[in-house]
Task: structure prediction
Amino acid sequence: MMRGDAEFVGYVTTLAELDWSGMDVWLVGGATSEDKIRDIDLLITGEYAPVRIKSNILQARELGPFDPFYTLQDVGTWWQPGDEPASYMCGLPNDRGHRRAKARTGAWQDELFWTKCWLPSKKQEAEPQHYGKPIQLIQNGEQIYF
Result:
């Protein structure tokens, strides 16, 4: 799958059907390049509604190969490879990547597990040519990309 192909567009179109009112969804990670990808990394910003955020993240994961997280900070919406390193807090519906994984460092608050995220990630440091500037998919609940 690649950004812009039929499979990718189908996933994003389905994702936009969730209730994103008051929120923005950004495409980040490998899908910002023209490379083939296995998952679609999403950054969610905007209205802090923890129950709905958790629900949308879990539903997005069920809809397709989405890897979404939420943040109250906007650094992930503008940061791109080559910028100064940055960190921010991201909220997830669980404290580990999969059930056998070691728990992440962080704390539970309002239905979300908050942990520190870094830019660039280890993958971005190793292969910066495979990453580009974030792309906004949804603005205040409305699909604006595709």
